[in-house]
Amino acid sequence: MDIEDFKKSFEEIEDFRQVGKVKHKLIDILFIGVLASIANANTFLEIGAFAEVKEEWLKKYIDLDYGVPSHDTIQRVFEHLDSKAFNKAFMEWTNKINEHTGGRIIAVDGKTVKGSVDGEKKPIHIVNAWVDENDMILGQIKTSEKSNEITAIPELLDLLFLKDSIVTIDAMGTQKKIAEKIIKKKGDYVLALKGNHETFHKEVADYMKQALEDCFNDIKMSTKITIEKGHGRIEKREYYQTDDIGWFSEKDLWKGLKSIGMVRRTVNYKEKETVEISYYISSLEMPEKGECELFAKAIRKHWGVESCHWMLDVLFKEDNSLVRKNNGAENLSMLRKIALNILKKELPEQKKVSKNMKRFKAGLDDKYLDLIVQNI
To answer: Which of 6, 85, 254, 280 has its CA 20 to 30 A from that of 38?
Structure first.
């Protein structure tokens, strides 16, 4: 995908500014914002500084008849830009570069932008969707607070292509309507069970505990065990999946429900052992033979969206951002995700370069920044 294809994905966003008083094209400001975010700029002031320093370099890719926009202009544009239209364009771009292979994992999870708190207003909370096959964020939906994930997740799912995909969501999203929406869109789900479904959680936990104590007896149970070692730490994961759910009285209320399962994580580190057990419900069938590979993969891959959240904080200092006005925080978060998706793409002969170093080099070396642009 070349740079022109990338620009076409975003140029359809309607410009809210008054015709006749605009010097800088909206697509040019968006392009500057993305490239600046790649090149180590985390704030609107830094994006403006990037534009000033890189003016001659930018002219290779965009028209700058009136020079570069000031950081004030850049900030005003992103504060008033229609965030839904920006998100739609972002999702159209990611859709073009995704393969849509069967069995891909789409992990959905929320992240609070802590620095966006404004007086009595709570910080914004953004629900993100991540896909394992390309290790990319697919899209986002903003909520006013974490508790509103229940209403935001269906909106995000409406925008996603879910056919033949497996959607993983933490306990907040374990809702009957969400399960039904995933099935209607011809996807599958693996949903976490916790205290928000106290009775259901206890019933599954009691069932799995008894099954393990009885060594399964006549219960069909598919398992998988993995052991990872590194830096003095040993982590053992035991996955269990069964389609023996005839005992569950409300099984028909959960659209597509075919199995339940658990994972037991045992970690030994510095002569200390910790054990954590998590329970899940799923529309995945239990394999007739072999290990519960797909079930285990879905659980294991959910960390991908959490890893992206960590990168947004560590690489882009998202939690330190004090942007609060209008759509500024949401749109700046979108810029970071576009930049992160691009940084995750391997560059020729740059496979061992960290994302942090890629950002650092991009801010210093025009040839390296050219290489990134050419590989968008």
So the answer is: 85
List the chain residues with pLDDT less than 50: none
User: The whole model's pTM is what?
Assistant: 0.90
Domain interval for residue 76: 3-95+323-374
Per-residue confidence (pLDDT) for residue 376, from 0 to 100: 74
Residue 175's Cβ-side half-sphere holds a number of Cα atoms within 13 Å equal to 12
Position 171 in a domain? no
Residue 34 belongs to a domain: yes
Distances in whole angstroms, Cα of residue 375 to Cα of each of 5, 175, 281, 372: 12, 40, 40, 5
Question: Are residues 21 and 68 located together in one domain of the fold?
Answer: yes
Tell me, what's the pLDDT at 200?
94
**183 near 215, Cβ under 8 Å?**
no
Pair (340, 276) in one structural domain: no
DSSP 284: P
Q: Do 274 and 192 belong together in one domain? A: yes
Q: What is the residue type of 35? A: L
Output the pLDDT for position 119. 64
140 belongs to a structural domain: no
Question: Residue 122's pLDDT is what?
Answer: 78
Predicted pLDDT at 11: 86
Per-residue buried b or exposed e for 125-150, using 16+ beta carbons within 10 Å of the residue's own CB: bbbbbbbbebebbbbbbbbeebebbb
Residues whose CB is less than 8 angstroms from the CB of residue 193 and which lie 6 or more positions away in sequence, other chains included: 171, 174, 200, 201, 204, 278, 279, 280, 281
Number of folded domains that form the chain: 2
| Domain end (from 244, 270, 292) | 292
Is residue 148 a part of any domain in this protein?
no
Q: Check residue 347 and give its pLDDT.
A: 67
